[in-house]
Write a sequence for this structure.
């Protein structure tokens, strides 16, 4: 068709739940596009990231949320849900942590775009 740009798009916008299903200041895990996604709510804003901690795979939905900072329940690594940035890599003693960082360097969380429309939460995966 002339003038029509065609491209392949593998990104899907998926309704995962309603905003009211996530308590304000809370975490919730959903599955979308075959992936476990962590949702974090602060007020009317929702953030999404991979649920699996990049350290050793802890389930971040079982962790805690303060503002936009999620803390892993296993070794207390912290990530900013806004961009997945590593804020703390475990709470291990410095000598152990130094070795651990050499073996497994800190990696940010993969994050996903989120939108809230008419009370429904959508994630692009
Ligand atoms: S598995 Fe999350 S900090 Fe170790």
């Amino acid at each position: 068709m002339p003038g029509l740009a065609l491209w392949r798009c593998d990104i899907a916008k998926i309704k995962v739940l309603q905003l009211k299903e996530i308590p304000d200041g809370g975490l919730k895990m959903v599955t979308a596009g075959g992936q476990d996604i962590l949702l974090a709510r602060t007020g009317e804003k929702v953030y999404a990231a991979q649920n699996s901690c990049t350290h050793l795979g802890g389930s971040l939905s079982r962790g805690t949320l303060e503002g936009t900072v999620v803390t892993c329940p296993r070794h207390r690594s912290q990530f900013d849900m806004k961009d997945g940035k590593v804020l703390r890599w475990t709470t291990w003693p410095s000598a152990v942590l130094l070795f651990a960082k050499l073996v497994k360097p800190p990696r940010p969380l993969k994050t996903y775009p989120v939108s809230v429309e008419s009370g429904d939460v959508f994630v692009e995966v």
The longest helix spans residues 94-103. Residues 116 and 125 are 15 Å apart (CA to CA). The chain has a mean pLDDT of 93. The chain has one helix and eleven strands.
